[in-house]
Design a protein that fits this description.
The complex is a heterodimer of chains A (539) and B (235).
Chain A (H helix, E strand, L loop, with lengths): L1 H12 L1 H4 E2 L4 E2 L2 H36 L3 H20 L3 H6 L4 H5 L5 H33 L3 H36 L3 H35 L9 H12 L2 H31 L19 H14 L2 H7 L1 H28 L8 H19 L5 H4 L7 H6 L4 H30 L4 H28 L9 H4 L3 H28 L1 H33 L1
Antiparallel strand pairs in A: 1-2
Helix pairs in contact in A: 1-7, 3-4, 3-7, 4-7, 4-8, 4-9, 4-10, 7-8, 8-9, 8-10, 8-11, 9-13, 10-11, 12-18, 14-15, 14-18, 15-18, 15-19, 15-21, 18-19, 19-21, 19-22, 21-22
Chain B lengths: L1 E10 L2 E11 L4 E6 L5 H8 L7 E6 L2 E2 L4 H6 L1 E4 L11 H11 L4 H14 L15 H13 L5 E5 L7 H16 L3 E5 L3 H7 L2 E6 L2 E7 H5 L4 H10 L1
Parallel strand pairs in B: 3-8, 3-9, 6-7, 7-8
Antiparallel strand pairs in B: 1-2, 1-4, 4-5, 9-10
Classes of the chains: A mainly alpha (539), B alpha/beta (235).
Chain lengths: 539, 235
């Protein structure tokens, strides 16, 4: 039975690889294999490539200095962060909100089998994301300095990290589920709950970073005295080196944590999954509602969908919070940040020349674009229509009006905080008025271009038959590509300055960037108006 | 009111609707019956402008749905077999959303919502999220939203499924009222007794092809609709 459920769950996660929605048929075996290779090549090639470089840079000197544990402590922490990013917000909806929960519960299937199959997808995401860090780490460790023991230890550490990430995900999922049963405005509450969790999580992470820095300093000074909370990281790193005792201790801690979490989930699953969550009936009071235009109505519908789903808010709208925080940080500490960035271009000299300040401005502009690219509401918005697609298609509205509403939502959600952030930055930057205006314009145009790109990704790879929304919000390739596209643009903006910016000057470079954004946006918009509309009509 | 001319819809090699022609006049309640997978839903979705079709023509009051879908959609409403509505909205927000799209002004919509919600005993639940509605309540909400802009043509796919007897009775009354005002209704059903009592005309579809249509008397003669249907299905 479990095998059947696991197969169903895996098919659901990788549905796009097996099924061609455009032709309404299954894909050929060779196409399936090809798509899997491409998927893992993108994950392994892009993310894995970065971490292979990092590992190659860190591992040999640390291993030679007898501090291989420090290498694994650093890589392990990154793996936990990335693994949690991949799975931590999926547990609640995957476990408790799956559309087929009632169906499966009505069948003669042990409840724990349903739970295991559900958690498998959460686990796999954590495993995949943490693997992009840990697989290169243990391969590099094995090949360059730590030998087979280091490689085997690193591999086992990866497995333990993936279980630890699952425990973190389950704890948040359980907390959110319990809170949801009692509170109104569930989606907002869930999002707030998750944000508190993130804050606590990053607090611990930054604390661990401080400890790690202290350890690095000690290693640099030739000593390896470890005390206090540093022991945790030290033990963690030692486990990665393949030392039996730390490995056993780490395994014991992780497995005990997992066992306790599993027991709690198992005891409460049925109650939570089948609870109505009723919190008292809202009283209807008739009141006059002003008539809205069609465009405003469709935009309101998009916002209602966004605010009605904590998954959507957390996975597609975090960039807004990031931009606001970044803006406030720039306002308060902007001077110091700009000085540091400028000094990077002057080789550490105290007084920065205008060219270096200009370079710092472009890099800051790229950072804002990078943060803005975290928002991708338009990418899953087409798939999110799901079973309700009939509704909007039966209404007297044009396809372009529907798509425009999706674009507008992302532009508003991202554009306002991005502009705030950009204004905060230009207040602090010592650049000319034209450069300041261009800085803000480039940020704004980049937001528009990314929204268009996200919508194209959403239209290109639509999945209307999901069993829980997290599949299309988080686990689909189009969402990954949508974000990746935005990040690449931001990196090209920053990197391009190093190539031509210093020759043409900051103002000209920003003007060129703005022009490129306009041209690309027009091309993308034209695609949506022609091919995009046809694709949506054929859904 | 509705003219379907040689409608054909294919899904790959499978022809779901094959050269179907039907004419539905103002004032008529037109029943559409057939076995599961006969092509009823595909026909209704094509007529509603939800689904593109491969050949033929659908005219709503003389306007082609392919040439001017917006003008056609403004004159009609569609209720699917499974009322998947926006779970993230409350009942009242959903009704206001529909009213806004159809341009129903504030005073008129307020009066209509009050009237229809009271008739279906849904007033107290309008502030609830649709996610908390039962299947029947969603069906009632879908019906109210369909009637909200007073369409001339209503397309319904199995509209009585999930409705309690009182709501079912009320729906039949509303269907008749709409047709008496000059509107038209085209709906599919498996409940042959309802079709027999309610419909002015009926069409029977089998494997995408129209096998019989006309007034109730023309189709069933002295037999019951069930007998005729089973006989035709057995052929």
């Amino acid at each position: 039975m479990l095998k059947v459920l696991l197969k169903k769950q895996l098919t659901e996660i990788f549905r796009g690889h097996y099924y061609d929605a455009k032709k309404n048929t299954g894909r050929s075996r060779s196409a399936v294999i090809g798509r899997f290779i491409a998927y893992f090549a993108v994950m392994g090639g892009v993310l894995g490539g970065c971490f292979t470089l990092l590992s190659s840079f860190l591992c040999p000197p640390l291993a030679a200095a007898g501090a291989g544990w420090l290498f694994y402590a650093i890589m392990g922490m990154i793996a936990v962060i990335l693994g949690a990013f991949g799975s931590v917000f999926s547990t609640y909806s995957t476990l408790y909100l799956a559309k087929d929960n009632d169906l499966l519960l009505s069948m003669p299937i042990p409840v724990q089998d349903i739970m295991i199959s559900r958690l498998l997808s959460v686990y796999l995401m954590g495993l995949l994301y943490s693997g992009t860090v840990m697989v290169p780490a243990f391969l590099v460790a094995g090949a360059r300095g730590m030998g087979p023991a280091g490689a085997v230890g690193g591999f086992l550490l990866w497995i333990l990290i993936s279980i630890f990430v699952l425990v973190l995900s389950c704890l948040l999922g359980f907390g959110v589920a319990k809170a949801s049963l009692k509170l109104k405005n569930k989606s907002i509450t869930r999002a707030a709950f998750a944000l508190v969790f993130i804050a606590a999580y990053y607090l611990i992470y930054f604390r661990a970073q401080i400890v790690l820095r202290e350890l690095i300093d000690r290693v640099s000074a030739g000593g390896v005295t470890v005390s206090g909370p540093a022991w945790i990281l030290y033990g963690f790193g030692r486990a990665g080196e393949g030392r039996p005792l730390p490995l056993l201790l780490c395994a014991a801690v992780v497995l005990v944590l997992f066992f306790v979490t599993w027991t709690v989930l198992k005891r409460t699953f049925l109650d939570i999954a089948t609870a109505s969550g009723a919190t008292g009936k809202a009283v209807y009071r008739e009141r006059r509602t002003e008539q809205k235009s069609v465009a405003r109505t469709l935009l309101s519908r998009e916002f209602a969908r966004f605010t009605g789903s904590s998954n959507y808010i957390l996975n597609s709208g975090m960039g807004s919070i990031l931009l606001i925080v970044l803006g406030v940080v720039l306002l308060i500490k902007g001077g110091a940040v700009i000085d540091v960035m400028s000094s990077m271009f002057t080789g550490g000299a105290a007084s920065a020349d205008p060219a270096s300040v200009g370079a710092a401005a472009v890099i800051m502009c790229a950072v804002i674009c990078l943060a803005a690219a975290v928002n991708d509401t338009a990418a899953p918005s087409v798939s999110l229509e799901g079973n309700t697609l009939w509704l909007v298609k039966s209404l007297p509205v044009t396809t372009m009006q529907i798509l425009t509403a999706k674009l507008k939502m992302q532009m508003i959600l991202t554009g306002i905080p991005a502009l705030f952030c950009a204004v905060c930055a230009v207040v602090r930057l010592q650049i000319g008025p034209a450069e300041k205006v261009l800085f803000v314009v480039v940020c704004a145009l980049n937001v528009c271009m990314h929204a268009l790109w996200c919508l194209i990704m959403g239209l290109s790879r639509t999945n209307l038959n999901w069993t829980h929304e997290i599949v299309v919000i988080k686990q689909s390739l189009n969402v990954f590509l949508a974000m990746l596209g935005g990040w690449i643009c931001a990196l090209v903006l920053g990197g391009g300055f190093m190539l031509i910016g210093r020759i043409v000057g900051t103002a000209v470079y920003l003007a060129l960037a703005a022009a490129v954004c306009v041209v690309l946006s027009l091309i993308l918009f034209s695609w949506i108006r022609t091919r995009g509309v046809k694709i949506f009509d054929a859904l | 009111m509705l003219r379907i001319e040689h409608l054909t819809k294919r899904f790959g090699d499978h022809t779901a609707v094959d050269d179907l022609s039907l004419h539905i006049a103002r004032g008529e309640i037109y029943g559409f019956i057939g076995h599961n997978g006969a092509g009823k839903t595909t026909t209704l979705r094509s007529v509603a402008g939800i689904q593109q079709f491969d050949a033929g023509e659908v005219l709503i009051g003389g306007t082609s749905i392919a040439a001017d879908p917006l003008a056609c959609k403004r004159r009609m409403a569609y209720i699917p077999d499974n009322p998947d509505l926006y779970d993230y909205m409350t009942g009242i927000k959903y009704l206001n959303f529909i009213a806004d799209v159809f341009g129903v002004n504030a005073d008129v919509r307020q009066a209509r919502i009050r009237d229809y919600a009271a008739r279906f005993s849904l007033t107290d639940d309008l502030a609830q999220p649709i996610a908390a509605y039962s299947h029947g309540m969603k069906q009632k909400l879908a019906i109210i939203s369909a009637w909200l802009h007073e369409p001339e043509l209503i397309l319904m796919d199995e509209p009585f499924v999930g409705l309690d007897p009182k709501a079912s009775h009320l729906l039949k009354e509303m269907m008749r009222e709409l047709c008496d005002r000059g509107g038209a209704i085209f709906f599919s059903t498996h409940v042959l007794e309802v079709a027999e009592k309610l419909c002015d005309k009926v069409a029977i579809i089998k494997q995408g092809r129209l096998i019989r249509s006309g007034t109730m008397d023309e189709v069933k003669g002295d037999a019951s609709l069930e007998e005729v249907f089973l006989e035709l299905e057995g052929d």
